[in-house]
Amino acid sequence: MRLVLDHARVHRQSWSLAADGIFSPGIHLVSGDVGSGKSTLALMMAGLYAPASGAVRREEITSTMLSFQFPEFHVTGLSVAEECASWNLSPETALAQAGIDVSPETPALSLSRGELKRLHLACALSRDYDLLLLDEPFSSLDCPGKEQVCRQISGRSKGITVIFTHEQSIFPAIDRIWEISDRRLVDCGKMPQALTQWQHAPPLVRRLVGAGRIPESITPEGLREAACRTRA
Fold it and tell me: Which residues have CB under 8 Å from 181's CB, separation 6+?
């Protein structure tokens, strides 16, 4: 199972994006500035946007889910219970996984965006998609919400998971890092050595790498462990 970007190119007036690479099973991080093309790349990888040239090949991938940045785009049920049922989940299970204390009869669109985001991600992460694409999964979430979602993402043991984000604080357990730089998708490599090539790395990661203490993981726990080694 793999997703192959074979000289895939996108052009929009004066803007362009070039993407080459192979995404294999594991958890991938695609970072980049706002407006760099992360969402366009996610749409292209999902098969919802055709490249102007080149190809996107989904080999042995039979199920794909693209989670959009704005959770209301996914809502199909009037109530929380109906929304959970659309994912074949009981509201009790989904609400417990999302960490939300509301009635199943609550109108889905009456939830705050953060609550709706947590509910949507709890539903999406409950399924074993071959290819799961998460566009800005941490937007609208507070720190505890981000940490909870990261634990859920880190628990995925099957398929290809790709996170597109400009997040700089809280991350799940990542296997490989990519970034969009100068209108091109760059493969920084596998963790942890990818951190030495990551131009969009958060300041703490850059300081740790500069001190020669490369974190084994960029999860909060991994960064704390590396920081403690630096002080020792």
Answer: 32, 36, 199, 200
